[in-house]
Amino acid sequence: MKCIYCGRENPEGETFCECGRPLRLGSSPTMAASGGSAYTPSPDSPFAAQTLDSVKRKRSVPWVPIILLIAVLIGVGVFFMLRWLAAKHITDESSWKTIDEPSFSITVPSEMEKGEMLTSNMSSADLLGFYTSRLAGFDVSIHRYTDPEKEMYSGVTAEQFAEAQKMRTTTINGQKIEFKPRPGKNYVFIEYNSHHPNYIKKSDEVWYIEAMFPTKNAYYLVDVYCAQEDKDEYRESLMKWLDSFVPKL
Question: How far apart are CA 133 and CA 129, in angstroms?
Fold first, then answer.
């Protein structure tokens, strides 16, 4: 006899299926034809009020937990997708944007947002801009020449300026480093690592490329940086940001 609940075949004459449910809830044409007697469960039986429809309803798929699980998985996927895109944009020049300030312009990844938490490290320099993201950032400061400095430094190259300032070799955080000229560009730069909170969101261990751009009225200090662990992957892009820098004063 076939159980109407689970579909299991049972020997003739059995009252209950192996699944625990009664095989005869009442008379049926099949039972009458086979000479079987009708079975009426007692009121105390746990299956007395059970019908095929009620069993099917109990077996219905729990859609709410499944939908919630799918929503969580989609959210996690979107989160990691956005992080992947942000990392890709650091090196993808087609996604970069040009930030055009009154005193300078520079082309950087589109995720860069202007911040206000940074102050200049140089008392004689004015902070012009600080931009950051989760993975990288940059800041720009300017030192305006005094009248004697204008006479001394007007028209000099970046390399000549670094030598005149005795900045060709310097020590930062115990690291002895030397300003190097960028071929084909009028700036010199140094590279070093330092611990700085809030410069980027990913890490407080930051890799800096600091560049110096002399003009006839002032010299700019431009820092571009990323997490120290990412320097090998992002260094070329950071140098391209510096290559795009245009002083306006």
Answer: 14
